[in-house]
Amino acid sequence: MLVLTESQVTKFLVAAEDSRYKTLYHLAITTGMRYSELIGLKWSDIDWDRGTIKVQRQLQYIPHKGYQFNRPKTRSGIRTIMLGKTTLSKLRQHYNENAYEDQTGENLIFVNGIGTQIYFKRFHKDFKRVLKNAGLPNIRFHDLRHTAATLMIANGIPVVIVSKILGHSKPSVTMNIYAHASVEMQSEAAQLMENLVTPIPISLKEIQKEDSHR
Prior knowledge:
By secondary structure, the chain is mainly α.
């Protein structure tokens, strides 16, 4: 598992500005959605008034059958995610610029250059191009999900909330996968407490002397 730092995420998103998939990349990093969930999103999944997006299907390629919609494997995989103002703004812009491109009849949010389902091999090529242009490690697309989860936990978002956003069955699953982020937080907490008690006065007499003059 490889994750990007906050500064690396910024570099990635800046480098992705010239990609037709820039909004998909933004949504991947801010929500931690899986690839199959992202390409299966429909415009009807967005509640513009509430600022949410519902994950309720996956779009997967089945050999000899083509692309098919499937329900998430678990009930927890069906979830509603709150979106930030910037993300909603980017989705509105994407709608205004690209909604007419969908030729699938499925009202998909993300399609390829000819308006059909995104083919992973071509998408993967674009993803690697963005990484290279940003001067970043050669990570997998799925590592953006790990990046999202790690940064959420590292920035103090409760694990129970992160678990719901990711669609995990229970918080313990999230903790088992992202224990490294928890360890980093514990280290930061330890240093914070250390700072609270350092430096300690040289002697008890000095404390008593200071108190006597108050």
